[in-house]
Amino acid sequence: MGSIVAAAYASGASLSQIVEKARAIRFRDFAKWRVSRYGLASNERLGALVHRFFDSRQFEDLAIPTAIVATDLGSGDPVVFKQGSLVDAIRASCAFPGLFEPVQIGTRWLADGGLVAPVPARAARELGSQIVVGISVGLHDGHRGEPTNIFQVVSRAVSAAQKNQLEAWERYADLVFRPDVQSLAWDEFDRIDEAIAAGAAAARSALPQIKKLLAPLTDRPMDPGRQGEYLLAGALR
To answer: N or C: lower Cβ tally within 10 Å for the chain?
Structure first.
């Protein structure tokens, strides 16, 4: 969901609009059960969700430079989208392996960007950002004890692999938020307010560091043409 929130914010949607729409989202809005040899569900419905979420259709329409990361299942390399169709990029970035079918774009089959970039701090840095804030929601699935279904097995396997990537992405971030959402499962949409409160609490606790980071930029007049300096790299899985 990180790519959806990022694109919505970059399109000019207000925080209140994003929160309102997030409260209304349910699994059926972006997924359709369709068991195949590639996954348990299709995320084709994400296209309609994106169109309802904000007006922008292309990266070029966004008010803030934005990058969305997916994983090339053929090479294992990250694929960073910065232009073209937002729907294609978001669908690919959200195609969690085992649950969703991978998304074919051209000759490549793409899956969740979290496989290679748990938090896309490097992508934000390479866009030219002077300050990069990473938001990590942790390596968990909201459940305790033994796994009870195939999705939990895959999710925990991916999380275990990502533990070794933490240092890799964190070196590109000036500051990292870690909201306390360990008890929330990915599909508990009815607990959205708890997730929002956890994010707000993490941000408030980091206000001194945020102000310190912003001081060198706010001490001089803001150049409207350089708003890309204020980029946010985040992942909501």
So the answer is: N
